[in-house]
Amino acid sequence: MQISELLPGRTEAALRIVSAEESKVSPDSLLKFCAACFEKLGVPADDARITAENLIFANLRGVDSHGVIRLKIYTERLRAGGFKARVHPRITSEHASSALLDAGHGLGQIAGVEAMKLAIAKAEATGAAIVGVQNSNHFGAAAFYAIQAVESGMIGFAATNAGASMAPTGGREGRLGNNPVAIAVPAGKYPPLVLDMATGAVAWGKIFLAQQKHEKIPPSWALDKHGLPTDDPNAAADRGLIQPFGGYKGYGLSLFVDILTGVLVGGGFSTHVKGLYQKLESPSDVAQSFAAIKIDNFMPRAEFSRRVEEIIDLMHSCPRAPGSERIYVPGEIEHETEQRRRAEGIPINATLREELVGLALDLSLPSPL
């Protein structure tokens, strides 16, 4: 599958930049606006709020590729029928430490939150649990769900597959998705350790942002339609492919994420999964897995916290290489970005601002800007 199929209309002409100027918007205003958009299209109020919270969570943490930049395509898929507005996940198989949910082609965020809640409840009883989801959709930032487990004092894991936009090592056609994974760990006196990463070199949303801002991309991110590395985000979107991170290592990890999600749970996998921007009226057949680990089954939480704090201190105290001002641990930059953006607002570029204003007019809603 080529990117022109996954992203119709997302080529240079459609995403030509008007201005790179940014303005800042309060998180609460954006949250209410996103939720109102979803409600206007038939999503129940609670589900609309959860989905909006997922988008704003990403923006607050600086992961703008998974924030309100996705609002327009979500509304388009709701209108076209690819996202079902009023369905609720149902359990189709259940055991002591595992379960399978059918999302019914509804919003991926709703299935994700329900699946992680179930994984946490089962892990509380058994020590560890995994819940799979089939017939799902794009679920936003994976860390959103992994952090759910941390809030219950557990280690959390979340993964999803996606439309095929990455070739296996040595290939020239898309056979795997970006297939992100997230792991979150309670860290005592520190913010949670959070790793949230695509198995490709970058998430497509970052290429969308580069298009909106009229910026170049690193040539290690994507290939153009001829299979050559490109620094032009528009060339990447024109029948190009994401490169796997770390070459064959990213390819291997993406493959196994697809097995742990799509293959294992009986959902779509590889080329059977449709991308978010492809065939808006059709189900995406995305599949996901969520897991929780009860720390108490291994050691007291206080002891675990002490040990995690120690390993964080060891990272922070490492002598810095020339030119390095500070050593971070996973999730630290995002946590600090969240504190700043809660106080200062979420930056919105001019192209996205026009998109949101247009959406407000289209849905007869007050603009958040």
Task: Give a structural overview.
Helices cover 40% and strands 16% of the residues. The chain is globular and about 55 Å long. The N terminus is likely disordered. The chain has a seven-stranded mixed beta sheet with strand order 2-3-4-11-5-6-7, sandwiched between helices. It has a three-stranded antiparallel beta sheet with strand order 9-8-10. It has a two-stranded antiparallel ribbon with strand order 1-12. The protein has a single domain, classed as 2-Layer Sandwich (Ribosomal Protein S8, Chain: A, domain 1), CATH 3.30.1370. The chain is α+β, with helices and mostly antiparallel strands and 369 residues long.
Total number of beta strands:
12
Structurally, the number of domains stands at: 1
Q: Note poorly predicted spans.
A: 1-19
Let me know the CATH homologous superfamily.
Malate/L-lactate/L-sulpholactate dehydrogenase, NADPH binding domain
Report the portion of residues in β strands. 15-25%
Structural class: alpha+beta
Side by side, the strands of the main sheet go 2-3-4-11-5-6-7
Instruction: List the secondary-structure elements in sequence, H or E.
Output: HEHHHEEHEHEEEHEEHEHEHHEH
Portion of residues within helices = 25-40%
Describe the global form.
Answer: globular
Mean pLDDT: 93
**What is the subunit arrangement here?**
single chain
